[in-house]
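User: For a benchmark we're assembling, each entry needs the component sequences followed by a predicted structure for the full assembly. Here are entry 17's components. Please fill in the structure.
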Amino acid sequence: MIDVRLTAVSKRFAKSSDSAAVDDVTVTIGAGEFFTLLGPSGCGKTTTLRMVAGFYFPTSGHIHFGDDDVTHWTPNKRDTGMVFQNYALFPHMTVAQNVAYGLKVRRVSRADQARRVEEALAQVHLAGYGDRRIDALSGGQQQRVALARALVIRPRTMLLDEPLSNLDAKLREETRAEIRRIQRESGTTSIYVTHDQAEAMAMSDRIAVMESGRVQQVGTPHEVYYQPANAFVARFIGRSNVLSLPVTGAGEQRVQVRLPGGASIEVGAPAGHGLAEGDTALVSARPEHIALGGDDDTASLRGRVSHVEFTGMATHVTVDVDGDEVMAALVDAPAGMALGDVVGLRLVPERLWVVKP
Amino acid sequence: MTAATPTAPGWAAALGRRLAGGANSRWFPYLLVLPLVLVLWGFVVQPMFATFRESVSANGTDNYLQFLSSSGVARESLFTSLFISAASVLLCGVVGVAMAFLLKRFHFRGRRLIEAFILVPAALPPLIGAVSFQLLYSNIGIVPRGLQALLGTDKPVLAFDGIAGVLVVHTFTMYPFFYLAASAALAGMDPSVEEAAYNLGAGRVRVWRTVLLPMLTPALISASLLVFMTSLASYTAPLLFNVSQTMTMQIYINRTNGDLPMASAYASVLGIVSIIFLLAMRWYEGRRNYQSQSKGVSAVRREITNPIGRWLAPLASVLATLVLLAPVGAIALVAFSADRSWTTEVLPPTYTFENFVTIFTDPKAFQPILNSVQMSLIAVVGCVVIGVLIAYAVRRLTFVGRGLLDVAVMIAWALPGTVVAINLISAFSTGNAFSFGQVLVGTFWILPLAYFVRFLPIVFRSSSATLALIDPSLEDAARNLGASWLRAFYTITVRLMLPGVLAGALLAFVHGVGEFVASVLIYTSSTVPISVAINNRMYSFELGTAAAYGMLQVLLIFVVMWFSGRLESSRTATRRAEQWTN
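Assistant: Structure for entry 17:
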């Protein structure tokens, strides 16, 4: 097991020299960790992964695998196992030939090849499929062949580029559990790229949220969810209301803000938030941390219902509070809630978090 | 409602009911297809049988036995033809694939220059193309003589003659089959497959050997079959480089010597070989290929970083561009040279506008242009009417024998021009049901008919390709809104097909104006087309006038090429090659 370190890695493509596709990324992925690069399309996550794989060389910065500076190594020397978004299986080879390809390159003996291919296929529940043609497999099966092909070489790191995006919803959930199980068994350091925040939350040890080529936040799923670093992360991970509220007092990791109704509440804030009385703080409030509440409550907002959506688990309500739309996920909404109703909303102060713009 | 007795009115009523369903009736496709079948049978298939009958008319199977005897011209010609074709495949393959890799996988200065002109040599009409290579590379050619003058030797240097000369022409005019097939395959190939191989530890050579080449194989095999077929049908290159022992040349020689049965035997053998290749190609194309529609990172062009390469690349690009444009340049140069003035000099010594002036002012010299335009127009009208309907029938209707209809059109494409000519001579030198009892050979009509047969597949293909892109439900929608089949067909389908049909028609017209191979066997003194005029002028050593005619053909081609490029840019690369190359 090795760690993977990216130090001040930037990538500019020749055509668009003005903006960097990846801008000054520094992260350390611990040995054996399942690490996810998460972000919307075009945020630079795939470019970052391809630099780790060696398909692009960084314009500046360094990439280390353990003690090796691999920044300018060619892809075939890096010993990474990559699973491509479209699987990239060799269409002119059988399943077994595909899986054996990396072993052949590594001059593994014929007997060992056969054994390891067999093992790898068994590991992804495809034992006995070795002689099939690639186009005789379903999408999910192809996905698992791609996984087996990357696993079988026992790579130093596994690189997974949106491997689930071509599967249907049900298969996607099954497969993500499967990938995580296999990764735990092998203990291989893994970097996973996705734009699906639910997938990232479910699978990862840690997540790096990226936007516009920059890392916005690195943290455990719990951290990025409950303590988003900035408004982008708050809105991208799950849904969030980012409220602009005047600061009435500030502490080490606490900030007091005043609600539109006039009451002040104390909310959590990151160390070194730099806010002082008189500033305006951005406060992230998740819809599920907002409930229907009495008018007398100190932590309350009042507004008119502008949209109602019943999902079964909760009722998603959008409330117009003095021109700002506030989303709330209510588990106890009365059945008769209608557009135009004036309601009071109660915030859960211990779940609110101050974010940077 | 039940038909009681089989009386005549009852029968008519039954038929009326059958057809009352209009286009929905089960009989409708057959009603539409019947005339098309008659046309294809009458002018494509039946003449082939007529040729076969002709070949065994005089002395039975003797003509065919000559192909088996060890020391005959026939056997020699067959082998020479096969050898030239195999060598052409090899040369075109090497050049075409190398060009594709260079241009599609590397980024260097001058790349776009080469790409812009890469199809030029192949787009020349067959006769003028071969003439230009003769003017450039044969032992009377500009390049060998230039090198001779430069090096002071007493013989032309690097002169290509005989079979070598034929192979030069073939390589230059047919490598685009490989180039376009390999480029399309490279472009369609999922780049991540290549990356997966690198990721698994394979080096560059190994990736080539185990991934890239195997995945290109289908494209290369199709291209090989195409080049082999085209080489086999090649006639002008052997004619100009004096290789008389090829199948096409023997057809011509026997025909001019009046031995029609022997010419027919050659034509039958060549026809059968061509059809076998056509069927092999169709069978192979039906198999899977490795293209994928994956999105994601597009294929990377590798920048040439080696400093020597960086300097050499633009230089080599300019050189390659010069070589690509040299044939047109040579024709243009000679077009302005005075007739009979150029003997042993490297370049023509005297220049004049006289050639063009003659062509446009002397009615006799202008007649071939009128002939070609008139005959091509007639042929194109036929091609459009029949070609569009066949395309519609093959793509949209279900009926027994649909595959055969498709194959019949493609046979017209696969048959070499010389064979088409011999077939028409055999079928229409006496009255025939399909010519309404008229003798056509020796009349005006035989040439437009030959052009029709040869270029029908062009219009058919481009119509069929456009039709494939039109959603059939559009026509259904029109029918649903109350339009009759005919109205829906004309206002929706034909309207949407128009760009493709027009492109095909223009192409057929250009090919008609440049046609030489069939014309030279069946023209009459009153219907001399341009290419035959060029050939005749060359014989009387009026090179300047010949080249001037050629220049006009080339200009027409470039105008049409530019125009149809604007008309339709979505056509696939391989299909484009098949249309532009002869």
